[in-house]
Amino acid sequence: MASTLLAALVATLVAAPAAPALAAWTTPAHGLGQARTRSLSAPGSVTPSCSFLLPGGIDVLWPVSPTVPTARYRVERTSDAGATWTVVAAAAAGPPVTDAPGILGTYRYRVTTTAGSWSSATSPVSPSRTITLSLTCL
Q1: What is the 3-state secondary structure (H, E, C) of the chain?
Q2: How many CB atoms lie within 10 A of CB 79?
Q3: What pTM was computed for the model?
Q4: What domains lie within the chain, and their CATH numbers?
Q5: Which residues contact 46 (CB under 8 A, 6 or more apart)?
Q6: I need a surface site. Which of 27, 35, 42, 84 has the fewest CB within 10 A?
Q7: Digits of tens for pLDDT over the chain (138 positions)?
């Protein structure tokens, strides 16, 4: 029975169309229920804006996943044009997330949808926001 479910899961994952922004899996049938396929899609656009509540802070917004209501979101920041990424938040409820980089610089963000051990592709990289010497966000 377990090998049949595993084979069905593998067949479903292999047969799924390859899409860079989608992770899919099938939950097995239990009792009289039917197996269900779930998918995670990457958030569409990520919008950083200057925080009204935190001087020098950046609020990060993105559309939530309509396919998985229990999804979490991992928000990452780069200050070197994407060479390295730092996780700034793991949000359970979705946006917004306020980031306080703490140092001067220009920052870009991306978001990944997660559910358990599954992750979507990352969102497109956001437009940049700059924190100046006077902790002003531009």
Answers
A1: CHHHHHHHHHHHHHHCCCCCCEEEEEECCCCCCCCEEEEEECCCCCEEEECCCCCCCEEEECCCCCCCCCCEEEEEEECCCCCCCEEEEEECCCCCEEECCCCCEEEEEEEEEEECCEEEEECCCCCCEEECCCCCEC
A2: 18
A3: 0.69
A4: 40-131 (2.60.40.10)
A5: 60, 61, 62, 109, 110, 111, 123, 124, 125, 126
A6: 84
A7: 434 433 443 333 333 333 334 444 444 445 555 555 567 777 888 999 988 888 888 999 988 766 666 678 899 999 998 999 999 998 877 788 899 887 889 999 999 888 878 888 888 899 998 888 777 777
d(CA 8, CA 60): 39
> Prior bond to 48 cis, omega within 30?
no
